[in-house]
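Lecture notes, continued. The same structure-token format from the folding unit now serves as the input rather than the output. Read the line below as a description of shape only.
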């Protein structure tokens, strides 16, 4: 338990790829001490991902998945790593494995929808964006991405509804944490997609300040 908390703490402290590269040897040491721990291999994969060392992350997530084939999260992150490496067919198949284990996972459904969007499978992506926010209604980015998918299919009323809900959630997040750059950028994206160009420009300027 102490080692687990320590490994998680190191990951949380890594704010940049350079920070993460520094902690990878420490995470490897933890893995060597507990080679049968799915969680430690998974955390090593997370560290390698933060360090943008995706081949190393792939190896760690594969080992985590082998050690616990019923852990959907390992397969989801493995799929996401395939995606980062441009190996789309393997990414899609591993997202499907993850969702076979946990069909209601908000995170896996969202990541799978993003991959489907990249391959032009917009209708199928919409299905999984919807499953994602059904499991986690407060997931603002899902509403924004779903709205963009509806917009691509010229389903204007549905797009407007989802943009409106995404905007509401993002405004709420910024009211709690005004320095949340990611939420502010996404809010600018909502304004841009809904032709509110002056609001978009003002919001993006705030991101750059």
């Amino acid at each position: 338990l102490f080692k687990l908390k320590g490994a998680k703490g190191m990951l949380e402290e890594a704010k940049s790829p350079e920070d993460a590269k520094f902690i990878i040897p420490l995470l490897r040491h933890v893995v060597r001490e507990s080679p049968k721990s799915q969680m430690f291999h998974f955390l090593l994969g997370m560290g390698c991902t933060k360090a943008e060392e995706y081949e190393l992350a792939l190896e760690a997530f594969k080992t985590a998945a082998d050690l616990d084939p019923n852990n959907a999260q390992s397969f989801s992150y493995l799929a996401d790593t395939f995606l980062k490496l441009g190996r789309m067919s393997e990414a899609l198949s591993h997202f499907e494995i993850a969702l076979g284990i946990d069909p209601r996972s908000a995170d896996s459904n969202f990541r799978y929808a993003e991959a489907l969007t990249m391959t032009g499978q917009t209708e199928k992506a919409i299905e999984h964006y919807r499953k994602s926010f059904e499991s986690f209604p407060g997931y603002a980015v899902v509403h924004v991405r779903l709205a963009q998918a509806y917009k691509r299919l010229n389903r204007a009323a549905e797009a407007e509804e989802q943009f409106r809900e995404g905007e509401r959630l993002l405004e709420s997040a910024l009211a709690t944490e005004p320095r949340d750059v990611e939420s502010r950028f996404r809010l600018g994206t909502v304004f841009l997609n809904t032709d509110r160009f002056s609001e978009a420009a003002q919001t993006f300027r705030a991101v750059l300040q």
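Point for the exam: The mean pLDDT is 92.
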